[in-house]
Specification:
With about 400 residues, the chain is α+β, with helices and mostly antiparallel strands. It has nine helices and 13 strands. One of its GO terms (molecular function) is structural molecule activity. Belongs to the bacterial flagellin family. It is found in: Bacterial flagellum; Secreted.
């Protein structure tokens, strides 16, 4: 085969350039510490690295969401702790107000502090987060959740939504609670009303308190008639004897007798309901118990009702006693609701903690796989560079010798 001088020169130059490019590329790998400089170096590993980087970015976003969720829940927990502290103080004031030895001025003093605690609770329930959104307004973060009306009652302006954040591929965690579920949907112990039957003449010294539902389990097990129940004192010979019927019914639901002590307030207990009876009936009275429709009552309305009872000079000892009894039971229900919300927050914080740990473990494995795919084996690269340097030097020296094999040099 005939090889021209030009072809020999081109082959030599191409060989030198190819060997020089190989050595330069190896030197660049060593200087960067990366085995893959372009996708062409290892297409399969390059695709896998891209997938791992995307996963790492998603984990970073999840970690940001976890931090935001933890901050929001921590603030809510602190707020609910403060609410619970205020409720404990309100309960102490309610117990103090139940002391029959207090005069109207003493009750007004208690009512004054109740008013201050009422304002404090209203402020806590309208707490904002760092973004200026209300904690307890559901999805309507810019709407103030609790508003006091002109008549002193409270209304909830938010919705029943619960804001959530995605903290894992298939896990969304609630970062807030709506105020209706925590502060408004509290079981009302005073949801029953008591009134004398239409044809009943009540003895002047007799008074029956509004029924108090103090055992929710027993009351829930009782199918309260839609028309209500009747408490009948129908034996003049034994005026303390009573029987309970469904309104208009003839079947005795319960029967009993009040205590013998005429000077004390007797209690009538039936299916989780308690009725205080002051005085001795004549034995001809009938009282009707009905639902008044207020199955739920907000914590603020409970405190407001107690405060108004204490502020009213016309409220006697019996009225104060009834108001305090309802308030204490409703406050206990309210604190149970707040404690349930705090327990749910604690459970979510535990989930956040374990999810953060899981994400850190996945990120660590992710980085390890990336290192195996991307990072350079320096021992192998240095050995390869040495070999490529030898080859390059050999190519350069051989090119010099071949370049000197010219016919003109012989003819000179």
């Amino acid at each position: 085969m005939r090889i021209s001088t030009l072809q020999a020169f081109n082959n030599g130059v191409n060989g030198i350039q190819r060997n020089y490019a190989n050595a330069t590329r190896t030197q660049e790998q060593i200087s960067t510490g990366n085995r893959i400089l372009t996708p062409a170096d290892d297409p399969v590993a390059s695709v896998r690295l891209l997938q791992l980087e995307q996963q790492q970015n998603v984990l970073s976003q999840y970690n940001s969401n976890l931090t935001a969720a933890k901050n929001s829940l921590t603030q809510e927990e602190v707020t609910l702790n403060s609410v619970n502290t205020v409720l404990q103080r309100v309960r102490e004031l309610a117990v103090q107000a139940g002391n029959g030895g207090l005069d109207p001025q003493d009750r007004k003093a208690i009512a004054a502090e109740l008013g201050e605690r009422e304002d404090e609770l209203l402020s806590l329930m309208n707490t904002r987060n760092a973004r200026g959104e209300y904690l307890f307004s559901g999805f309507q973060g810019k709407t103030q959740p609790f508003v006091r009306g002109p008549d002193g009652s409270y209304s909830y302006q938010g919705d029943e939504g619960q804001r959530k954040l995605q903290v894992a591929s298939s896990l969304n965690i609630a970062i807030s609670d709506n105020g209706k579920s925590v502060f408004q949907s509290v079981t009302n112990a005073g949801r029953l009303s008591m009134s004398p039957a239409a044809d009943t003449i009540v003895a002047p010294a007799v008074r029956l308190s509004a029924p108090l539902v103090n055992d929710e389990v027993a009351f829930a097990a009782f199918d309260f008639p839609a028309g209500g129940i009747e408490v009948r004192f129908a034996d003049p010979a034994d005026p303390k004897k009573y029987e309970i019927y469904e309104v208009g019914g003839s079947t005795v639901l319960s029967a009993g007798r009040l205590d013998e002590d005429d000077k004390s307030s007797d209690k009538l207990v039936f299916r989780g309901m308690t009725i205080h009876v002051d005085g001795v009936p004549s034995g001809t009275e009938t009282f009707t118990v009905n639902r008044n429709g207020m199955e739920k009552q907000g914590i603020l309305d409970t405190i407001s009702s107690l405060r108004k009872s204490l502020e009213n000079p016309a409220t006697g000892n019996n009225g104060v006693r009834d108001a305090v009894a309802v308030a204490l039971t409703n406050l206990d229900h309210g604190m149970v609701s707040v404690d349930q919300a705090r327990g749910n927050i604690g459970a979510r914080l535990n989930v956040i903690e374990t999810t953060q740990t899981d994400n850190e473990d996945v990120a660590l494995v992710n980085k390890g796989v990336q290192a195996e795919l991307r990072e350079l084996d320096y021992a192998e690269a240095l050995s390869r560079l040495s070999m490529q340097t030898v080859v390059l030097e050999a190519a350069q020296q051989s090119y010099v010798k071949i370049a000197g094999l010219s016919l003109f040099n012989i003819m000179r």
